[in-house]
Amino acid sequence: MVNEEEMNGSGNLMDFLDEPLPDVGTYEDFHTIDWLREKSRDTDRHRKITSKSKESLFEFIKGLLDAWSGWVVMLLIGLLAGTLAGVIDLAVDWMTDLKEGICLSAFWYSHEQCCWRSSETPFEDRYKCPQWQKWSELMVGQPEGASAYILNYFLYILWALTFAFLAVSLVRVFAPYACGSGIPEIKTILSGFIIRGYLGKWTLLIKTVTLVLVVSSGLSLGKEGPLVHVACCCGNLFCSLFSKYSKNEGKRREVLSAAAAAGVSVAFGAPIGGVLFSLEEVSYYFPLKTLWRSFFAALVAAFTLRSINPFGNSRLVLFYVEYHTPWYMAELFPFILLGVFGGLWGTLFIRCNIAWCRRRKTTRLGKYPVLEVIAVTAITAIIAYPNPYTRRSTSELISELFNDCGALESSQLCDYINDPNMTRTVDDIPDRPAGPGVYTAMWQLALALIFKIIITIFTFGMKIPSGLFIPSMAVGAIAGRMVGIGVEQLAYHNHDWIIFSSWCRPGADCVTPGLYAMVGAAACLGGVTRMTVSLVVIMFELTGGLEYIVPLMAAAVTSKWVADAFGKEGIYEAHIHLNGYPFLDVKDEFTHRTLATDVMRPRRGEPPLSVLTQDSMTVEDIETLIKETDYNGFPVVVSKDSERLIGFAQRRELILAIKNARKRQDGVVSNSILYFTEDQPELPTNSPHPLKLRRILNLSPFTVTDHTPMETVVDIFRKLGLRQCLVTRSGRLLGIITKKDVLRHMAQMANQDPESIMFN
Amino acid sequence: MVNEEEMNGSGNLMDFLDEPLPDVGTYEDFHTIDWLREKSRDTDRHRKITSKSKESLFEFIKGLLDAWSGWVVMLLIGLLAGTLAGVIDLAVDWMTDLKEGICLSAFWYSHEQCCWRSSETPFEDRYKCPQWQKWSELMVGQPEGASAYILNYFLYILWALTFAFLAVSLVRVFAPYACGSGIPEIKTILSGFIIRGYLGKWTLLIKTVTLVLVVSSGLSLGKEGPLVHVACCCGNLFCSLFSKYSKNEGKRREVLSAAAAAGVSVAFGAPIGGVLFSLEEVSYYFPLKTLWRSFFAALVAAFTLRSINPFGNSRLVLFYVEYHTPWYMAELFPFILLGVFGGLWGTLFIRCNIAWCRRRKTTRLGKYPVLEVIAVTAITAIIAYPNPYTRRSTSELISELFNDCGALESSQLCDYINDPNMTRTVDDIPDRPAGPGVYTAMWQLALALIFKIIITIFTFGMKIPSGLFIPSMAVGAIAGRMVGIGVEQLAYHNHDWIIFSSWCRPGADCVTPGLYAMVGAAACLGGVTRMTVSLVVIMFELTGGLEYIVPLMAAAVTSKWVADAFGKEGIYEAHIHLNGYPFLDVKDEFTHRTLATDVMRPRRGEPPLSVLTQDSMTVEDIETLIKETDYNGFPVVVSKDSERLIGFAQRRELILAIKNARKRQDGVVSNSILYFTEDQPELPTNSPHPLKLRRILNLSPFTVTDHTPMETVVDIFRKLGLRQCLVTRSGRLLGIITKKDVLRHMAQMANQDPESIMFN
C-alpha cells in the first residue's frame, strides 16, 4: 500500500503520523473485534460524509447513495439467497430421484416433474408414468421381482456413496470451512470474532454444491442450518461491494445478522420466524435498524424463492398443512408428553453427539474423515432402503407425517377401515378403526425412529455440510404421529372412558394424528436447539393459524424445561464450547460473587504487567517488548514507579508507527526516546531525535476498579463488546482483564457450582 | 420500618452498619433508577435463595416457587388483561348503541345482540328487529321523519356529552394519570424513570371505566394505546404480590415490558405483533427471557379475550378480512402513493398536535380541561351525526372499509351496478361500474376524512384516555378506500390502457378496494407512530396471509421515509420531549465529535464539584454539604488536594447512616471525623469518636476519562442504564456526567445540526 506521504516526499516529517496509518483497523485471524472502536470508526466516516455532502451536489448524492447502500445490500442478499435456495431445492429433488431411476423423456426431470409433464395424470397417480423408469427397468427390463429389487438396492447404495464421496472430497480439497451446519461458527463470528475465509466465496460455492450432494445422498441431515451459512456467505460477498461494510467489522455483522434471517426465511418459508431466529438464536448485536432491514431481506428472499417455485405448488412454506378439526383440552396431556420426549431426545442427542465429536477430535478417528463419511453413508443407505419411511427424503417423510388423512389420501398411513354406509365428504371424516396399512406403518415407523435417533448422532459433525433441523423434526414427527394414531385408536375404541366421553362422541372426528406429528417435531427441535419464540413462530407460519399455537407452545415450553434440567446448553452452544470459540453468551447469567481483582492478570506471583511509560522508554525497549510478548496492546503509564494510567496503545499500531518512523524520520534510531505526552520531554543534549506517538494512544481506555463485581464486568463486556478492560485503583494500574479471561473465569465458576442452574 | 438491630438492643455498635440499611434501594419520585445496581441486587437475592435452598426441602421448594413466580405473574397479567379487554369491548358496544336507542327485551343488550337474540333473523337483517327501538320511537312513537331525526340527533349529542363529562370528571377527581394514551409515559418508565402512581390501582380502575365512556361518546380516539397502559397497570399490580418484582425496579420493568405486549395482543388480537411492538416501540431493556415470557402473556391474554368472545364471531382479531384476488405489481404505484399520504399525514398530525398541546400547556387554555372536553365532544357529535360514516363507531367504520364487497354485502359502499346476465358466484365477482350508492359514499367519505383529520389533532392530548391507533387507521382506511374505488373504476372503464391491459382483462376481478383501505391504514399508522416491523406483523396477523405483506411493507416503508424526512420523532417521542421526560432513546444515534470533558460538570467558571474526602471531613461538614446541595450522591476522594477518586457515596445512604449513628453510636457528635478508609485515621488524642462509613461507599463507581468521545459515553449510558458517571484523568477526579447532562447535551447538539438527520 502506497502512502500518499511517500509520493509527496517527506514534507513536515513530524506531522505525517497525524495521517491515518495504513492498514490500521483490520484485525488478525482468530482475534476478537472491539465493538466500541468499530462503532466510533463508523461514526467518523459518517460524519465525514455528512460534512462533505454540503459541499456539492455530487457529494450530496454520494452521501445519499451511502445511506441507501444498506437497503441495496439487503435486496441483493434476499435475491441471491432466494435463488440459491430454489436451485438447491430443484437439484436435490432431481438427484434424490436419480438414486432410484431416471426420466426417459428428459433426464433432468425429477420423478414428479417427469410424470406431471408427460400427461395430465390425476393427482393420485403423480408418481406413476411410463416415462419414469427405475434402474432395474432400464437395465434389465424388470420393474419388479427379487433381482430387480437387489439391483435397485445396489444402485441406490452406489449413488449414495458417489454423492457422499464427491461431497467430502470437495469439502476437503477446496473449502474445509464448508462442513457442519455453520451456525455455531456464525454465532461466534457475529459476537465479534474473526475467522477469515469462513464466509468466503469458495465456502459459498462449495457449500452450495456439496449441500445438494449430501442431502441427495440420503444421509440423515437437513439443509436448513447450512442454508443460514450460505445466506451469510452471500451477505459477506455483498459487503465487499461497499466500503461502509467491508471496512468495518461491526457494520459487517449487522449485514450478517440480516443474512441469517434471510437464510431461515428461505429454509422454511417463514420470514417472521427467520427474523426472530436471527434475533433469538444467532445474533449478538441487533439494533432496531437491523431488525427492520432483516425483515426486508427475509421477505425478498422468501418471494424470490416463491417465484422460482421449486415445490411446484406456489406455496411458500416447506410443509403446508391444513387441519379440519380443532384440538381439545384433554389432548394437552399427550402434547406435554411429546414435549417431555422432545426434551429427553434433545439431551440424549447433545450428550452423545458431543461425546462422539470429542472422540473424533482426540483419537485417530479424526484422521480419516473421508472414510468416516463413506462408512456412515453406506450404513445409512443399507439400512434405509428396505424401509419405505427412511428410503424417501426426510422432508417428504415429515410432510407425509404432518398431513391430515383426507378422503383422497392414498398413503399407507391413511389406510383406515371405512364404514361402507358412511357418506363421504371430502374434509370431515370421523375417526375410524385402523386398517392393516396403519399397523404396518406403525412398526415401520418405530424402526425408522430408532434408526434416525442413532444415525443422526453419528452424522452431525462429519466433514460435510449438515443441518440438524430436519432430522430433529423427523424424529419428533415420527414419535408424534405414532402417539397420535395411538390416541386416535384409543379414543375410537373407548368412547365411553371418562377422559374421552366429554369431547369425543362416536362418529366425530376428534383426533388429528398429523397435529401430533407437528407438535412432536416442534418439541424435538426445541429440545435440541432450545429455540422458543422463533420456533413457535416458524411453526405458526407453517400452519398459518393461531388455532394450534397453544399445543405447540405447551410442547416447546415443556421440552425446553425438561432439556434445561439436564444442562443449559443447546447443541450450538455445546459445539461452540467443544471447539473452544471465545463466545460470551448473552443468555447465561453470571451470578457469582467474585471481583475484578480475582480475575485480572497478573495473578499473584506472576510477573508484572508489560506496560509502556509515557516518556522514558526507547524505541529499542519497545521493540524488545513487542518481540517478547504477543499481547494485543499495552497500557501506557506515567512511570514504572507511579503506575498512573495514561492510555492504551495497540500492538499493531505501535509496530506500524515504529516501522514508518524508522523508514522515514531522520534521526529516529534504536535509542531514540519514544513519548506519548503532548510536549516533548526534556532530554540530554546529545540524545537522538525522539519519536512522538501521542496519535496512536487511546486516551480513553476502558477501566474498572479492582472492587468491581465480576457480574458487572461481564455485563460490560457483553453489552459494550469490549476486547479488554484495564483494572485500576484510584488511577493506579493494577492489571488487565481480556475477553478470554472473562470466559475462562465464567467456565471455572460454572464448573464449581453446577447446581445453581436449576434456579435460573 | 423497624430494624432488627433496634429490637436486639445495641450489640456491637460499630458493626450494625454492616446490616443492610432500612429503606435503601427505593428511589424517589421522578428520579432515575440505576440499572446496574438493581441487577446486582437481584443477583444477590438470587444467590441467597440458591444457597439457602440447599439447606432444607422447604427452602428448596421456596426457591423453586421463586423461580416460577415470573411465569405466574405472566399468567395473571394475561388473564386480567384479556378479561378487562373483553369487558371494555362489551361495554363499549352497549354504550355506543345507547346513544341511538335501547333494547326493550333487555336493556343491557347492544343493538346487534338485541336483534340476534330476539329471533333467528338472517345475517343481512341483523340490525332490524322490533325489540330495538330508537329513542324517538320510544318517546314520541315516530321511528322516521324530521322531528324524530331532530330528537335522535339531540339525544345523541346529550349522551355523548354525558359520557365525556363523566369521563373527564372521573379522571380529574380520582386519577389524573389516567389521561392520554399512556405510551409516552410507559416508555419513559421502562427506560428507568420513576413516576409513582402512574401504574397504580386507581389509575387502572379509572382508566378502564373512563376508556369505556370516552370511546362510547364517539370522540375521535381509540382504545388501543390506553389498553397498553391498562395492561401495564395489571402488571404493576401483580408485581406487588412477589417481593422479587415489587422490591426491584429493574425486574419490575421486565414484567411491565411483557404486560405491554399483552396489551397490544388484546387490542388487535395479534400476540406476535404485540411482542414485537413491545420490543420495537416500548421497551428499553428486553432480555431474551422477557421475550419468551412476553409471548406467553400475550398468548394467554389473546385466548382469554377469545373465550369471552366480545365480537360474537369467535375471531381473535379486531378486523378480520379475507380477500379473493391477489394484487398485481402495477398496483404498487397507488400503494406507494398511499405511503406518501401516510407519511405526510403523520408529519402534519405530529406538528399540529404538538403545537396545540404546547399552546394548551402554556396558555390559559390548559386551565379548563373539562370545558375543553365538553366543547370538543359537542363539536364532534354535532358534525358526526349527519354523516353515516362518522356517526358509527370508528372501529366499525374501519371494519367496513377493509371489507371486500362479496355478493351478499348490502352496504352502500358495495352498491355496484350488476350485469343482469352475470351468473353470481359468492366470491369471485368481476369489477363492475359503480352505482349511485358508491358515489354518495365517496363524498361522504371525503367529508369524513377532512373531519377526522382535523378533530383528531384536537382530541389527542385532552385530559381523557385517548388512543391514536384507531383514528390514524381510520384516516388511512378512508383515504385508501377512496383511492381503491378510484383505481377500480379507472381500470373498469379503461381496460385498454397500457398500464391495465397486462393484468386486468374485462370481466375479471382485478382491484380490491378493501386492500387499499388496509394499506392506507398501515401507512397512516406508520407515519404517526413510526412503527415498522411490529406494524407489518400486526397487519399480517389481521389478514393471516403472507400474500399481502409486500403491499403493506411498501406502504409502511414509504410512509416512514417520507415522515422521517420531515422529522425523526414519532408522536410518542414528540410527547416525551414535550413533557420533558428524561428518556434516552435507543434509536437516536449520537454522531457528534464532542468529548466527555465538554459535557461534564463543573463547567469552566463554575464552583468545583462537591466531594467528600476519605478521612478528613467531620459529620457536620457533611451535613452542611447535604443541606446545601441536592445531588443524588457525592464522589469520595483521597483529599481535596490530590483529588484521587476512591468511590461514590449515595446521598440517601449517607443521610440514613449519619442519622442512625447519631441516634445510637456513643460519642458520634457533630465534629466527629467521618472516614471511608479501611483503617481508622490517626486522630488527635482528645478528638471525639470517629464514624466509619466504608460500608456505604461504592468502591466501583463508573468512570470514563475526560478524552472519551461523547458517543461512547452515550452508548455506555444507554446500554448499561447508568444514573451518573465520573470523569477522571489518570485517577484524578475532574467532574461528573449525569443522565440529564447527557440528554441536555444531545438536545443541544441536535438543535445545532438538524440537517444530519437525512443521512441516518
Automatic annotation (TrEMBL), chains A, B:
Q: Is Methyltransferase one of the keywords UniProt gives this record?
A: no
Coarse class of the protein's main subcellular location: membrane
Question: What residue ranges are annotated as transmembrane?
Answer: 68-92, 153-175, 195-215, 227-243, 255-279, 332-356, 368-385, 441-461, 468-487, 515-540
Q: Which compartments does it reside in?
A: Endosome membrane; Membrane
A Pfam match is: Voltage_CLC
Q: Do you know which InterPro entries this protein is assigned to?
A: CBS_dom, CBS_dom_sf, Cl-channel_core, Cl_channel-4, ClC
Q: Which CDD domains match?
A: CBS_pair_voltage-gated_CLC_euk_bac, ClC_3_like
Instruction: Give the record's keywords alphabetically.
Output: Antiport, ATP-binding, CBS domain, Chloride, Endosome, Ion transport, Membrane, Nucleotide-binding, Repeat, Transmembrane, Transmembrane helix, Transport
Q: What is the membrane topology here?
A: Multi-pass membrane protein
Enumerate the GO terms in the molecular function aspect.
Answer: antiporter activity; ATP binding; voltage-gated chloride channel activity
Family recorded in the similarity comment: Belongs to the chloride channel (TC 2.A.49) family.
Tell me what this protein is called.
Chloride channel protein
What gene name is given for the protein in this entry? CLCN4
